[in-house]
Write a structure and sequence with these properties.
The chain is mainly beta. Helices cover 4% and strands 34% of the residues. The chain contains five helices and 38 strands. Strands 28, 30, 32, 35, 37 and 38 form a six-stranded antiparallel sheet that branches. Strand 19 and strand 20 form a beta hairpin. It is globular.
Length: 835
Amino acid sequence: MFSLTQNILKTGLLVFLLISCSEEPTEPTNGVDGLNGFNALIAVSDEPAGENCTSGGVKIAVGQDTNANGTLDESEITSINFICNGSDGSSNEAPMLVARTSPESPGENCPQGGTIVEVGTDLNTNNILDDNEIQTSFFVCNGEDGSDGSNGTDGSDGTNGLTSLIRVTASTSCDNGGITIEIGLDDDQNGSLGDDEVDATYDICDGANGSNGTDGSNGYNALSNVVTEPSGSNCPNGGILIQLGLDTDSNGALDSDEIVSENYICNGTDGSDGSDGNDGVDGMSSITKVTAENPGSNCSNGGLMIQIGLDDVTVDGVLQSDEVDFTYFVCNGVDGNDGTNGSDGLNSLIRTTTEEPGVNCTSGGIQIEIGLDNNANGVLDADEVIGSPVYTCNGEDGTNGVDGTDGRDVFVISESDRSCTNGGVKLTFGYDNNNDGDLEDAGDEILTSHTVCNGNDGADGSNGKNSIIRITAEDPGLNCTNGGTLVQVGIDDNENNNLEDPAEVDASFYVCNGEDGTDGLDGSNGNNSLISVSSFSGSQGGCTNGGIIIRTGVDDNGNGSLDAGEIDATSYVCDGSDGTNGSDGNDGNSDNIYEFYFQEGFDGYTGVLDVSITDKNPTERGESLSVDRGSTDSHGLLMFPDIDQIIAEVVKTAEFEVVEAILYLRGSSVLQDGVTEDNWIGAKIILPDAPAFTEEGVTWTTSGNGDWSLPGVSSRGSDGDAYSYSDMYRLPSPFEFNGFIPLLLSKSEVAAWTDPVTGKDDNKGIVLLMANASVQYELDVFTSNYAKDVNYRPTLYVKVKTGVKARFSTETEEEYFKRWNAMSFEEKLAPLYRK
């Protein structure tokens, strides 16, 4: 049968506050210790659907911890605001979030300069945040300089100030992509934010795509907990713990098994009192500049140029040419020959079972168990399961969307283009308004046309060698007065994965610890940091549907209220737009493509025949069938019935073309002792005039309904009752094998099975056999009776395109197989994963 899926993007919004301060030493005037300012606290909780938020959302309470108990009590709350969920949107796939950072010059936003962080939706899907896509932004500002004090005894020069760095990368924690924002101080002053320098990490994730359908199930609400973290191993001086997750059991609370990530924001350590001294010399900011290096004398195959220096000439936050102290090149390696195949590792297995309605899933769902196939039997046994089961629960049925208007099908014509040096295809797109299968009539609309040319084959590259970086501790001495780190970089010429030979070291530099500066005097009483959160409606700050305004600043006048002149930063959090009505109407298929999956038990499809003909037994049936070559031979037979009827019921037209047909098998083999050559499992389509086989009566000589033509469909070395090989898959020796096997079938031979008149009689099935007669190899293939994991059953995937006449065939048989051979293994399995 076939399956239609709809991707629903669930986007979670994470709001975080960054405050950056720097303080210059003041003049040495001893003063009385100031009173501690009150800590600002935020309490975030889920808001159920109701008067405050029609579709539910998040409640944000803000106040000051006046009783210093680390908890925002009811009496301490100064403002409450709500971030509400938008109404259900359309089923169309939503674009992902992207972010960018750039320096902010001193001015109205940041008096001492800083960094602006901008976030928005990638509307044009170019993976870059363009100016017209910015939805919200906030500033990370440098602190103001302290006032001058009276002169005291001269102190030694202070160490260079640490620079706050921000790194934005593609997220590895998001299931469906997103960005990770990491923030920290440049402790080793190398201009790059190292992994051990990250103080805070935030993920902004793209939501997962859902499936199309009339009735959409409710998605899980994103929940968060913000709790006080006591002093301990996570935060030596205490702080707060932020927990994020999905409300998978829909109880409105973030339970311990629903937590996806935990982040700590820790309080800093109090500094000790220091002796009087003059202000030290200001340290210069370290800047790193990374640019692409074109192929040339520095890098034969191109790479990156890394320039590092102090902002000590222009002091403008940009690394100028006369400020560069070190230059390094990170070069691309030369392409190497393919390495030898490594030994197979343990396969990861996933077992899914239906979860009945109950304590784990109120409306039922799926239980998912994950583990390693330690005994290589292709089955996830009980003692192989890792961790606790995960439940994917069914949501409650959502309300039906309003019927959409009927759409027009986009018609595509493909024809060879001789203007391309290496051949190519010209694609013409338009509307076939009179439904006659072409775009040649006066009433037809041609939208656009494009030519796709084949490229030239590239030459093989020579072997490349790995670049290695070795980092060792440097004791205090001549190179580093206070100790530090020795960094050595080079090419692994002897390919031992170690940078041991001094001749392999191409560059060395020291990252030295700075000298301890003289302690400064106690500062004057600090003013409290304040946060003001208010909601608004209409258009403001880049929001079109209302939202909240978050203002931050310092209570300079000590009145406990954030006045207009005390605001340092303003950020907007926008409410989501209401989605358009669901497309439940009789919309057309935009690309005229239909995908069909034929697998026993899938979408009610039944009747698959699979059996082995073997020298050991007349026939072999059960949960696996054998395909052998050696002292005993075994061939497998498969037949998927009623293909013609199922396709005709869906496409409802006589004008269609089979554009792709793939057979997916799941096979396993034991270690092939003594075998040094590879073998190949191949698939042949049985001829239309061959007798139909039965599972009970088939042997080497008879199909059960008649004798095979000599030497027969199971012939050793001759096609007999079958066409020549459609495709073959390499099986490595002497390794064990356990995995999926994709085999491309001739689309013209499979097309005969889809004919509404003769297809039923022409479909005699497929024969599987080992192609190399000189190599002994045994493979077990899971059959349609395999019960432990139905996804292991044989699957026939057929893709058809409607509205195609014979003269408009999109791809020749030769081009069809050439395209398949150029695909990666993951690309070949993509249709199976879509099922």
